[in-house]
Write a structure and sequence with these properties.
Helices cover about 60% and strands about 5% of the residues. By secondary structure, it is mainly alpha-helical. The protein has two domains: about 50-145, 3-Layer(aba) Sandwich (D-Maltodextrin-Binding Protein, domain 2); about 160-395, no CATH class. A four-stranded mixed beta sheet has the order 2-1-3-4, covered by helices on one side. Strand 3 and strand 4 form a beta hairpin. The longest helix has about 40 residues, at about 210-250. The mean pLDDT is about 75.
Amino acid sequence: MSRLNQTLTVAKWEFMQFFKWKQELIGKSIMLLLALGMYLWHNQVLYQPEPQQIVSNTQLDGLQLSQEFVFRTEPKSNEALIEEVKAGAIDGALIFKSTELPQQVTLYTEGKMSWQNDLSGQLNEYARSQAALSLNLSQTQLALLEQPLRFETNFLDDSVKDQMQQSALTANALLFLMAIGIFMTFGQVFVAITGEKQQRVTEQLYSCMDAQTWIEGKIIGQMLHAIKAMTTTAFTALLGMAFVQVILKGQTLDFSIFDFSVLPWFVLFVLVGIYMCTAFIAAIAAAIDDPNHSGKTAFMMIPLIPTIVGFMMMDSPSSLSVTVLSYFPLTAFVFMPMKMALIEVPFWQVIIAFISSIIGCIVIRNMAARMFKMGMTMYGKEPDLKTMLKWAVAIRS
């Protein structure tokens, strides 16, 4: 078997030991069915609800409620209206405790229902219009008073994107997905490698393949899990946004708040970055003898540092520090996609950052392979930091 076939065999085994396609398919199907059911329920395809019967003992001139409600005025006492609610004759009783502005009103219902919030909003709109009439204000004047300050920032740097909200949301989403991928590799690589070391399967595997092949296969397998987790998270987030827009708010489906033009470059940087982070985590995990009492577990969180710093520096994409970090081999995979989402970046800068990331990936991969080989064959005693650094910079393993 060639080295490439060995690597792909290890990658397939590493991926399939944590991936159960039937469970994934069932889980996603249930999620889609729930979303479909909610959509049909909200759009009243499955049922046609009866309008809510709302009665008030105070005349409200000009009040027009939506078709969800049937509103009428009856000259009855408060106690009589409340008794009708208890008997189920009506759904709600509006009792006005004052006629002066601002009016105080109490809604009596049998239980808590979703339509009560809709009714409250419509009554507030009615009270707003009545207040405008009492002050001799037109609707146009009242709308002007409610207008916020129109504040905008004019950037002299032409590279800053105009749609700042879209850019900020895109940058946040990219960094969040990157963190999801790193967390996924952190958890699964730690469990897989420390478990294999404690079960002493190293000797058997080294008899049929070298350390470089083994770690490359493990990295590729765990990368697939990270990409799956990131894709699932993105799909779920978009589905949730669609649910809020279409079902809860009744709007048309609109994903224009995200800048999808940076997605192809983000995928390339993710592949390089996740490979680099997984290789580093695998190297540290191989040096851990007892995962329950090792002090080296904290070092496995180092790949998260660029993502955390990226969140902190997102407000200054044009700064010198972000520019430097977007070229640095060990941080470019995070900062360049973030920078591209926030400002216009020349194509040559993206190419330089990508080449820099590949160089960093190769360096970390080679160092991790040497550390992985020595760490997996060392039992009973964990290597100290000086020994691990010596393995990392060794010319030959």
